[in-house]
Design brief:
two-stranded antiparallel sheet, about 40% helix
Length: about 400
């Protein structure tokens, strides 16, 4: 590869001589402009406006056009004396995590090659340090007349530098997102997940430019004097009833194009990595039929699903009603049993009290009885004494 820039990487006090080479190339088919009447080539000639003549490349220089239209010449010597340290140096200014770089900023990629044997050791040191830290280096460098921002990262055994746009060169996405509020249903997310899961991953090496290949076939046919191959007409898009129908058709088409999992009805499963509450997953209709038939079957499936849902809700309502009645009956029975138990306990307590009262007479009554008994005993004793006295007198 041919180098387009020679300089050094400034890594603190370490200097690494490097060469800059383009890491990418374009394979696009290029065309020339011609005169359609006679096939003559159309060329752009560089003409001086003041002398009205064509000039060579050696006579062409640079100039800055001022606001009033006047030209301010800028020579290569002027550019070589720019007061910046990055004129011939890739100056590393920071190391940041890879995710801090917005892909919108990334531009042209370059390979950085060690320039000469002395650069091998510091080059390898920087490469290994970047790889072990899992970070990227942010650098400033000058190329093609202006200072640029770059990102250094490791790719295999090489260091790659991506040109970055300055942050103020990235436009804000104002007016890009939809203005109206849109609500996405869970079923639609489930189908989108199923479509993503069906498409799965792919090896990027398997992708190729089909347009360029078709264009080369046309050019080869025209060069051989043959008619160019006819391209098949675009398939007419079917009438999509709603987003759900489009997602279901997309999942079905993706499965059929990838070998499929059969043409019968297949259940759309949510991805295991999504941490969302469990929910019913819609089903997709199988079969390789026209869009209208698929739409009809989808509508029928939705009607059947509504009927099944209605029946399920009705059955659930009946079950809930029976459960409520059973709970009410159980509650009433429990209350009656509690009342009966309380009544029985009250009756038993009353009987016990009465029995105790019978066994234990009133204290006042007992006292009266004892007093009467005492009085009777005293009277009896008095009578005996009186009788004895009378007997002594008679004697």
């Amino acid at each position: 590869m041919r180098s387009i820039w020679n300089g050094a990487i400034s890594f603190g006090l370490v200097s690494i001589p490097v060469k800059l080479m383009n890491a990418t190339e374009s394979h696009a088919v290029s065309f020339r402009q011609i005169h359609t009447e006679d096939g003559g080539r159309i060329r752009y000639r560089k003409v001086c406006e003041l002398e009205d003549r064509e000039v060579s490349q050696a006579e062409i220089g640079k100039a800055y056009e001022d606001a009033d239209g006047s030209m301010i010449p800028i020579t290569d010597e002027d550019l070589s004396h720019l007061p910046i340290p990055t004129a011939r140096t890739i100056e590393i200014v920071a190391f940041v995590p890879r995710e801090r770089i917005d892909p919108l900023q990334m531009g042209t990629a370059y390979y950085l090659a060690a320039s000469g044997a002395p650069a091998a050791k510091p080059y390898t040191l920087l490469r290994e340090a970047l790889g072990r830290s899992d970070r990227v280096a942010i650098a400033k460098f000058a190329l093609r007349g202006r200072e640029r921002l770059g990102m250094l990262r490791v790719s295999g055994d090489a260091i790659v530098m991506h040109g970055l746009l300055w942050p103020d060169e990235v436009r804000t996405p104002e007016g890009v997102a939809p203005d109206a509020g849109v609500t996405v249903r869970e079923q639609e997310l489930d189908l989108a997940d199923a479509l993503m899961d069906t498409l799965g991953e792919i090896d990027l090496d398997d992708l190729h430019d089909e347009y360029r290949e078709a264009l080369e076939e046309v050019i080869a046919a025209k060069a051989a004097g043959e008619a160019p191959p006819e391209a098949p007409g675009p398939a007419e898009p079917g009438k999509v009833l709603d987003l759900m129908a489009a997602l279901e058709s997309s999942v079905r088409a993706a499965r059929e194009s990838r070998g499929g999992e059969g043409t019968g009805t297949a259940e759309v499963r949510t991805l295991e990595r999504r941490e969302r509450p469990a929910r019913r997953t819609p089903k997709e209709t199988g079969g390789k039929k026209s869009t209208s038939t698929a739409a009809g079957k989808t509508a029928a499936g939705k009607t059947q699903a509504r009927k099944s849902t209605s029946a399920a809700r009705k059955s659930t309502a009946e079950t809930d009603e029976k459960t409520a009645k059973s709970a009410k009956s159980a509650k009433s029975a429990h209350a009656a049993h509690t009342a009966k138990t309380a009544k029985s306990a009250k009756t038993a307590q009353t009987a016990k009290t009465a029995k105790t009262a019978q066994k234990t007479p009133d204290r006042s009554t007992a006292r009266k009885t004892a007093a009467k008994a005492t009085a009777g005993s005293t009277a009896g004793k008095g009578a005996v004494k009186k009788t004895a006295s009378s007997r002594r007198r008679g004697a």
